[in-house]
Structure formats: C-alpha cells, structure tokens
Amino acid sequence: MAYEIPVTQARAELAELINRVVYGGERVVVTRHGKPLVALVSAADLERLEQLQEAGEEEVVSSVSSMGAVGSAPGERARFGLTAEHRRPDTHG
What we know:
The protein is of the alpha+beta class. Helices cover about 50% and strands about 15% of the residues. The protein has helices spanning about 5-10, 15-25, 45-65, 75-80; strands at about 5, 30, 35-40.
C-alpha cells in the first residue's frame, strides 16, 4: 500500500519523501483534494513497470500478428446482401 500525502505537505517534505522512496522502499502518492495526482516510486520500480508495459505491448502485437485473415462464413454475403469484398493488392507484379 502506498503512503498518501497532500501536495501542499509533499512540497514541504520532498527531501524526506525521496528518502522514504529510495531507502525505505515505499511508494508515495501525492494527492490534491483527496484524489491521486502523481506517484513517487524508485527508479528500480519505474524500470520494472516499463519492462512490464513493453512485454504487454509485445504480447499484443504478437497475438495480432499471429491472427490470419478471416473470411466470411459461407452464405453470409448473400444473407447480408453484400456485393463487394475487400481483396489484398496483387503483389505478383
């Protein structure tokens, strides 16, 4: 659980908050009117978060890339009155 502190108090205690994050391993959430505004996390925590984000993005790209083209089920074109279909450009010259 993160330690929450109002922005006005955080301004006055910034050096102490940095020490709590770096040496105490705490996460600090700075609030304004009781709502989270920013978070102070260690550089190591930030690096881990960025690695997780990149891994998640790579997984999505991999999933989308592995999906093949999906055609209409037989009879669906006639059922919905479709008269045209998208075709990939001919790459054979």
